[in-house]
Specification:
Blueprint lengths: L1 E5 L4 E5 L4 H14 L4 E7 L23 E5 L2 H8 L5 H8 L4 E4 L2 H10 L5 E6 L9 H14 L2
Parallel strand pairs: 2-6, 3-4, 3-6, 4-5
Antiparallel strand pairs: 1-2
């Protein structure tokens, strides 16, 4: 896990977490370290195993302690690695939790993150990829700087 940007009130991390156990541990560790901050957790399903139907249920509850949780996957990558389409609803059911939204478009995920007031927030960007071309450090800095400017 790498701290990529920090303001007086908010912090952003990027992490290689992608397996269910690593994802759960990372989210819980950040929640424990920043108990008074809003926790926004984003993860990308990117590896072959993480996209398998029989593997997805292992993610159950892995992001439950986040205030807001987003899961992103690129349908083209999923199709190539799986040999079939992946339904966003299948992912939502596997992860569980009312706080979780699934995205298949990186630009829509970025737009949704921009809507969130990142003041007093711990932001987690977790992937073994890059959310289909996102510069994670630059994007985290943008989000947290915008929040600081809105005070």
């Amino acid at each position: 896990m790498e701290k990529v940007f920090e303001t007086e009130t908010s912090v952003a991390f990027k992490d290689f977490a992608h397996s269910p156990s690593k994802l759960r541990a990372t989210v819980q560790a950040v929640r424990g370290q920043y108990p008074d901050k809003k926790l926004v957790a984003c993860m990308e399903l990117h590896t072959f195993s993480s996209l398998r139907d029989d593997f997805l249920p292992q993610y159950a509850g892995s992001m439950a302690v986040a205030d807001t949780a987003f899961v992103y996957f690129n349908p083209e990558v999923a199709q190539r690695k799986r040999g079939k389409d992946l339904n966003p609803e299948t992912i939502k059911e596997a992860f569980g939790g009312k706080n979780l939204t699934v995205f298949t478009d990186s630009k829509k995920l970025q737009a949704e993150l921009r809507k969130i007031n990142m003041e007093n927030t711990a932001l987690l960007l977790m992937t073994s990829g890059n959310f289909s071309g996102m510069d994670l450090k630059e994007f985290a800095e943008e989000l947290l700087t915008e929040a600081r400017g809105k005070r």
